[in-house]
Amino acid sequence: MNRHTMTPYVDAATLVELAQRAEENAAESCSCTRASLDGWQSQPLSIDEAQLVEIATLVREDDPEPTFAEYRPDNVQYWSADAPVAPRYFPYNRCGVWQCTQCNRLYLRYTEGGGYFVDRRIRALKSHLIDDVPL
């Protein structure tokens, strides 16, 4: 268990299993799908926080300073819907895995902080995009 979030840490292989199971069991429509979340987005107001529950984390307890290095093969953009999900790289190494209690879809969420702002970001988790690339 991660001492900060009290949710279990999952590695890439387990993340793929969770994502595949969620994809198999996802309901067709849900209020959480009003906005396309295929790529990173600032969390839309249309998502009801009460609908999401954190089920796992990609934050490793034994890594007090996760890297800010990004994994961007072929120079794919961070915001792109087809950007790979590389759990050891930023921002994934700072994400919680959240599940919609209504439709079972999984989302990755983290908080981006800058000099004068904080932005909660969210992205739908797609199993085929998970890439277990070493640092």
Short key terms for the protein model shown above:
135 residues, alpha+beta, 5-stranded antiparallel sheet, 1 helix, globular
Point out poorly predicted stretches.
none
Q: Roughly what fraction of the amino acids lie in strands? A: 15-25%
The secondary-structure class comes to alpha+beta
Q: Which series of helices and strands comes N to C?
A: HEEEEE
- Specify Rg, calculated over alpha carbons: 14 Å
Strand order of the largest sheet: 1-5-4-3-2
Give a verbal description of the structure.
Strand 4 and strand 5 form a beta hairpin. This protein has one helix spanning 12-25; strands at residues 41-42, 52-57, 96-100, 106-113, 118-124. The protein has a 5-stranded antiparallel beta sheet with strand order 1-5-4-3-2. Helices cover 10% and strands 21% of the residues. The protein has one domain. The protein has 1 helix and 5 strands. The chain has 135 residues and is an alpha+beta fold. The longest helix is centred in the first third of the chain and has 14 residues, at 12-25. The mean pLDDT is 91. The radius of gyration is 14 Å and the shape is globular.
